[in-house]
């Protein structure tokens, strides 16, 4: 098996061939207006970070346009209430490099943003990104290095937006069942599942 491992860039590029013209030209060092439209339409993104403890990919979501465009080189991402692990934020403190992957329901193309981030608690930003009068815990100010869209092949192959492909929630272990198993029953899974719907409703922001 080890004889077939690719270990250098030259071998990798020989395997895949040249980058297409479109794939090269679509990458921009700023937020093109067409790319801005995708961000404004997106209710969901994945935030990728790295740090001494390893890598992290964190789901982020709110109503469409929840990642605000300050200008064509800067984005604002509110950090809402969560479990206080703050894995992404710990990473940003150690290594400011970040990446975002934006998804738009029903749209095959995704948008990728690479850049650097800093954590702000500036009152004007906290107030700007408040929802129903509730401010975020902090705001990520993301400085854009590159932006480009990803073609729709992955979403077409996965049929992610096909309603017929949706999985019934009951077909998979519940959060409570998973916590009971991973905590070796130190967490009461049934009680957790019973309380979860109301807890989500009251702690969303």
UniProtKB/TrEMBL annotation:
Gene3D superfamilies tied to this protein: Electron Transport, Fmn-binding Protein, Chain A
InterPro entries for the chain: Pyridox_Oxase_FMN-dep, Pyridox_Oxase_N, Split_barrel_FMN-bd
Domain of life (superkingdom): Bacteria
Stored SUPFAM superfamilies: FMN-binding split barrel
One matching Pfam family: PNPOx_N
Domain Pyridoxamine 5'-phosphate oxidase N-terminal as annotated: residue spans: 32-151
UniProt xrefs under PANTHER family: FAD-BINDING, PUTATIVE (AFU_ORTHOLOGUE AFUA_6G07600)-RELATED
Protein name, UniProt field: Flavin-nucleotide-binding protein
